Each structure stands twice: as structure tokens, then as C-alpha cells.
Amino acid sequence: MRITQRFRVLLLLSTLLLVFLYSNSRKEVNSSMKEPPKSAGVRQMEVQTPVQTPVQTPIQTPIQTPVHTSVQIPVQAKVPTLPSVNISSTFRTLIPENGAYWNRLLHSSLKRADQGENPLSRVPPWPYCRNTNQELIETNVQDVDSYPFLLRNFLWGMKCRSPPFLMDQPNKCKENATFLLFAIKSMPAHFERRQAVRDTWGQERLYNGGLRVRTAFLLGTASPDDPDLSVLVRFEAENYGDILQADFHDSLLNLTLKMNAFFRWTLERCPRVSFVFSGDDDVMVNTPALLSYLSSLDSSKASRLYAGDVIKMASPQRDPKNKYFIPMSFYEGPYPAYVGGGGFVISGGLLRPLYSTCGVIPYFPIDDVYVGMCFSALGVLPEAHAGFYTFDIRDRDRGNLCAYKKLILVHRRSPRQVKKIWQGIHSPLLTC
Ligand SMILES: *[C@@H]1O[C@H](CO)[C@@H](O)[C@H](O)[C@H]1NC(C)=O
Ligand SMILES: *[C@@H]1O[C@H](CO)[C@@H](O)[C@H](O)[C@H]1NC(C)=O
Ligand SMILES: *[C@@H]1O[C@H](CO)[C@@H](O)[C@H](O)[C@H]1NC(C)=O
Ligand SMILES: *[C@@H]1O[C@H](CO)[C@@H](O)[C@H](O)[C@H]1NC(C)=O
Q1: pTM of the prediction?
Q2: Per-residue model confidence as pLDDT tens digits over 107-162
Q3: Contact assessment for residue 340 and residue 309, using Cβ atoms and an 8 Å cutoff
Q4: Which atom of ligand 1 is nearest to the CA of 30?
Q5: Are 182 and 205 a contacting pair, CB within 8 Å?
Q6: Which residue ranges traverse the bilayer (predicted)?
Q7: Strands, DSSP E only, in 302-387?
Q8: Contact 199, 419 (CB under 8 A)
Q9: What is the DSSP letter of 429?
Q10: Which of 48-57, 78-87, 140-149, 363-372 comes out lowest in average pLDDT?
């Protein structure tokens, strides 16, 4: 009897101990997840935040390195930003100051920049940037619940500006000057498209006149719901040395993040490149025609180039079913003239001022519009070139190789079509 009683007491005590330990450990998990350690007074600025959000974002927390990290680019350290950025008055007046959320964010950011604040000093470090934003958005955007899911997701992550790189190509531009860098937006699953690019217009080589072309593909990560392709992508990266991968989910509304990560990478790894071509992985580029256009430019144009298929007087899509839908409560105003994101080219020398200028401008869900905003703020006008067909060529020209021989870029071609056109325009038998 006594033994059973003792046993019961013992059991009771150990149960209590377990409960105690368990609840304590839960508490720790919760608090460590919800409240990152406080540090270096980074003010959580926001437009109209009624209650001061107590949560502070640490600035010197080591960035969590994901498992397969090979090299990591220092997130904010190495790329120096201009101490002050001059935002053009054209841009200031183009984007009205009104009640829409993005407009409010922009104008408060401009005011801070005018006071000499380095806008990038407020960028929260990567793993924490989403933590508090959701509440902030709910407070500032009344009808956010009616936004499409992807857009809401974009908003929560809007302050996440500098994803760490999971795959880098640190030596891409080390040796020999690069004349043209092809920066191709791709996704992990697009192996075939990338191979078609490597086999044709994106082949890394020296062209006539000593013009060296190099290529990099920019990838985010696949969704956890997708098959795991990471081993294959790593193999591809080792084999071809042209894959860059940053730690964010690849999605349409994360393309702005991808662009900006790429600008940062180029400043770090290819700071002396003459020109950068940014484009999709399903375009066909007539590389010799592009090179001859670029080398024909006079030096003043060559140093301030932002060229392609210019889209003028566009305004936001207000149809919720459109993939580029922008609600009124998010953005109200016109878009600046911008160059279609299917493929455009910029001067390497503009990368640094461009990156600094973009630092003042909150992320916008549409990447080519965003780049257009940065250029407009920088005071560089887009240059229209008739050879960039981001909306395809006329139906009846689609089978005509001579039409392809004259153009610089055409959008939406399958890997097989890309190879066929490329071989066709290089055939010695072709007479146009
Ligand atoms: C942990 O946080 C979640 C979400 O805030 C909450 O639902 C849960 O009750 C918390 N658990 C503990 C043990 O505090
Ligand atoms: C900004 O503009 C002022 C006056 O035009 C000029 O003196 C200054 O150098 C410019 N700053 C930068 C970073 O371009
Ligand atoms: C640099 O150029 C030289 C001479 O053209 C060539 O032999 C060498 O392979 C090049 N290096 C790289 C990394 O492209
Ligand atoms: C962008 O990437 C981040 C980081 O992976 C992710 O949390 C977010 O959901 C992505 N945003 C969109 C709109 O897909």
C-alpha cells in the first residue's frame, strides 16, 4: 500500500514537473518567435500608425543561413550607397500625394530622404522583415481583406528588401571586361528554357570587336508544395556557373525583389560591366544586332541608357481579375513611362545611382513599372527602340527569318522556337 502511495506522489510530482517544463519551453518558443531581441533603435516608422508598435527590429542579428548556402553576399555592408539621392522633380509631381497606401509610403520616404536620411538604414534584416508588417498593413489599408491573396502576401513582405543569396557566382566578371551581361529572370523549374538560352543567344563568348558577353540566371526558391529541385539546380549551377539564387519565393509579385537583388549582386560582382540586359527566360534575343546597337551609341547616350519597348501613359489595372491588378486604396496615380520587362538594356554605369534611388522608393508589385519609377526618380528618360518586340511581331512575320534578323528581341518563344530561329538567322543560306 505504502509503495503505491509513494509511487502516486512520485507520479504526480513528475507530471507537474513535466507540465512546468513544457509550458516554459512553449513560452520560450513563442516569445523567441514573436519578439526578436531589442537593439539599436530602429524606429518602426509608418504612415499613420496610431499605436506605437513596441516591436523593434534588431539590426545586427546574424542572418540565418539556410542549409545549402554556398556563399553569402553581405546584405547591406558592401554596396555603398550615395550619401544623398536626388529625386527628380518630375517624379515628385508625377506621383500624387494622396490617401492611397503606396503613395503615402513614397511621400514619407521622400521627406526623410530630403532630410538626409539614408533610406536603406531602415531596411529591417531579412528574417524579421515580415514579422510586424501584417498588423501595420491591417491598420493602414482598410480594405486589405478584399485584396487578392498574392497581393496581400506582397504587402506583408514589402519591407523585405535584401534577400541573402543561396547561390552566387563570385567570379563571374573577375577576368576580362564584360561588355554585356545578360541577366535573365528564371525559375528553378525552367531548366529547358535556360538551356535554350545557353545554346543560343546567351552563350558566354567573345563577339567581333572584342565584345564579351556573359550570362546569369536569377532564381528565387520553389514553393514547398512543388517537387524539390534543389539538387538539380545545384548541379546545374556547378556545371554551367551561371545560376544565382536568392532566398525568396519565386512568384510574379516578387519580381521587383528579384530585380533589386540582381542590381545589388551586379554592383558587387560586376561593377564595371558596360551594359546590362534584363529580361525573361522565354525571349529570343538577336545578340549580334543588340551588340551592334550598343556599340554604335555615342558616349553620352551609352552612359545613360535605359532602352527597350517604351510603354507610355499607362495606368494601373483596376480589374481584380487581371494579373496586374492594383486596387485604388493601394496606388492612385499614373505610371511613369517605363520599358517593358520582357527585355531591356541599361548602362552599367547607372547601376549604382539606380540602386541608391530605388532605395528611396517602396517596392511596387510590378517590376518593370518599379524600374521605370526608379529611372524617373533618377531623371533618366527611357529610350524607345523599335527592335524590342515585348508584345511580339505581326502574325504574318512569325515564320519569316528575315524579320527576326532585323529585330533585337521578341517575347514568348518556346525553347525549341528559340533554337530554330537562332540557327535560321545564322544560316549562310539566308538572304534577306
Ligand atoms: C503561442 O502563440 C500562439 C499564437 O500567438 C498562441 O495561440 C498560443 O496560445 C501560444 N502558446 C503559448 C504556450 O503561449
Ligand atoms: C544633387 O543635386 C545637387 C544640386 O543640383 C548637387 O549639388 C548634388 O551634387 C547632387 N547630389 C547627388 C548625389 O547627385
Ligand atoms: C580572358 O581572356 C583571355 C584572352 O582572350 C582568355 O584566354 C581567357 O580564357 C579569358 N578568361 C576568362 C575567364 O574568360
Ligand atoms: C516573396 O518571397 C517571400 C520570401 O520567400 C515570401 O515570404 C513571400 O510570400 C513572397 N511573396 C509573394 C507575393 O509571393
Answers
A1: 0.80
A2: 999 999 999 888 777 788 887 888 778 888 999 999 999 999 999 999 999 999 99
A3: yes
A4: 1
A5: no
A6: none
A7: 306-311, 338-347, 383-384
A8: yes
A9: T
A10: 48-57
Lining residues, ligand 3, CB within 6 Å: 175-176
- Minimum CA distance residue for ligand 2 atom 11: 86
Beta strand ranges found along 188-337 (DSSP E): 205-207, 211-221, 243-249, 275-280, 283-285, 306-311
For ligand 3, atom 5, the nearest C-alpha belongs to: 176
Asked if 354 contacts 376 with a C-beta cutoff of 8 angstroms, the reply is no
The CB density around residue 424, as the number of other CB atoms within 10 Å, is: 16
Any atom of ligand 2 within 6 Å of the Cβ of 131: no
Question: Counting Cβ atoms within 10 Å, is residue 279 exposed (0-12), middle (13-18) or buried (19+)?
Answer: buried
pLDDT number for residue 14: 67
> Cα separation of 175 and 91, whole Å?
38
In angstroms, the CA 16 to CA 9 distance is: 11
What residues pair up with 217 in beta bridges, in sequence order?
Answer: 184, 243
The pLDDT mean for the chain works out to: 86
What are the beta bridge partners of residue 345? 277, 307
